Amino acid sequence: MAGDVKDKADQGAPDAFSQLVESARQPHARPSFGGGQLERRSISEQVANRILAMIKSGNLRPADRLPTEAQMGIAFGISRPPLREALKALTLMGVLESRQGGRYTVTDLSPSRLVAPFNVMLSNNDYDVGEHFEARTVVDLELVRYCAERATPEERQRIYQHAIDGRSFYQDPVAFRLLDIEFHQSLNDAAGNRLLTALAQSLYDIGLEVRRIASAQPGNIEKSVGQHIEVAEAVMAHDAAAAVAAYRRHLEHVRDTTLAVLEMDRQD
C-alpha cells in the first residue's frame, strides 16, 4: 500500500524533483549533530537547505512549480509540520512564493527580493546603531571603491551633480532627503554589483525615521552635503582610496547624528 502511494506521488512529480525522490528512498544514516534525535527545527532547516541546493544546482529554476506537500513529504520522509516550516522560511526569504492551489513556485530570485526579509529583520525595536553602521561600513565602502574604479564618465558626472545640488537644500530637509537617496543610489549603481547594491539599499532604509529627525537639526545638512561633494570629487578623479576615506567620514557623521537623536529621545 505504501509503495502504491509512492508510485502515485512520483507520477505527478516534475523531473527536477525525481532525483530527490530517488535519493530519499535509498537507505542512509540519519545525520547527527552531537548525538540524539534531530529536533523538528533541525529537520526543517535541512529540508530548506535541500531545496536551496536544488535551486543552486539548477535542478529547480525560477518559475518552476514544486510538487504538492504530500509528494514532498514522501520524498523527504517527513511529516507536514516540519515541511511547512521549511516552505514558510523559504517564502519569507523570497526564494519561494505560494500560488493559488497551495503549490509553491520558485521566484525570480532577484537581489532585491532576497534581501527583503533582511530589511524587516533589522527594522525592529532591537535596532542597534553600532551594528547598523558597522554593516554599512562593510558594504558601502566596498561599493564606493568599486564605483571609483568602474563608473562611466556619465555616471561620475551624475554623482557629482547630485552632490553639488545639495547646496540648494540647506533649509529644506525633505528635499535634501530625496536628493540624498538619489546620491547614494547613483554611487551604488555605478559600482556595478547588483547584490551589494540591494544589501546597501536595505541597510540605508533601516532607521530612516531617526535620520529624518537628524536631518532637521541645524548644521547637519550642510555637513552632509560637504561630505557628499568630497566623495564625488574623489570619484571624478578616479581616486578610490580618497573616495573610501571621504565616505567613511560621512558614515561616521551619520552614525553620530543618529546617536544624538536617540539620546535626545531617551532624555525626553
Describe the structure.
- The protein has 268 residues and is mostly helical.
- It folds into two domains: 107 residues, Winged helix-like DNA-binding domain superfamily/Winged helix DNA-binding domain (Arc Repressor Mutant, subunit A), CATH 1.10.10; 152 residues, GntR ligand-binding domain-like (Four Helix Bundle (Hemerythrin (Met), subunit A)).
- 71% of the residues lie in helices and 2% in strands.
- The chain contains 14 helices and two strands; from the N terminus they run αααααββααααααααα.
- It has a two-stranded antiparallel ribbon.
- α3 packs across α5 and α12 packs across α14.
- The longest helix has 28 residues.
- The radius of gyration is 25 Å and the shape is elongated.
- The N and C termini lie far apart (70 Å).
- The N terminus is likely disordered.
Q: How many helical elements? A: 14
Rg, Cα atoms, Å: 25 Å
* Spatial arrangement of strands, main beta sheet: 1-2
Assigned CATH class of the largest domain: Mainly Alpha
The CATH homologous superfamily name of the largest domain equals GntR ligand-binding domain-like
* CATH topology assignment of the largest domain: Four Helix Bundle (Hemerythrin (Met), subunit A)
Termini, distance in Å?
Answer: 70 Å
The number of domains is: 2
Mean pLDDT across the residues is 81
Indicate the overall shape.
Answer: elongated
